[in-house]
Design brief:
The structure is a single chain. The chain has helices at 3-20, 23-42, 47-82. By secondary structure, it is mainly α. It has one domain. Helix 1 runs parallel beside helix 3 (47-82) and helix 2 crosses helix 3.
Length: 83
């Protein structure tokens, strides 16, 4: 399999992955994919691999941030009930 076909397969897989992601998780994935793609491009023309890795990391960071916000919201709610 030559390089162009590999790039097409990876791009198609990334597109399908983005289409399957829910909208809440897509924001982290898209931001991460953009940053990872740019970084991968400048690190030796590996933009697709960088975008896939960035999507994974972005999804993880967005999920962690959402969990932290939910915990803060729950703590505020518990504090209001106790006063």
């Amino acid at each position: 399999m030559n390089v162009n076909n590999r790039i097409r397969v990876l791009a198609a897989a990334a597109t399908l992955g983005l289409a399957a992601a829910s909208s809440a998780h897509a924001a982290g994935c898209l931001k991460g994919a953009v940053v990872g793609g740019v970084a991968g491009h400048y690190a030796g023309h590996h933009a697709v691999a960088g975008a896939v890795g960035g999507c994974i990391v972005g999804h993880h960071v967005a999920k962690k941030h959402a969990e932290e916000r939910a915990a803060e919201h729950q703590a505020e709610r518990a504090q209001k009930l106790n006063t």
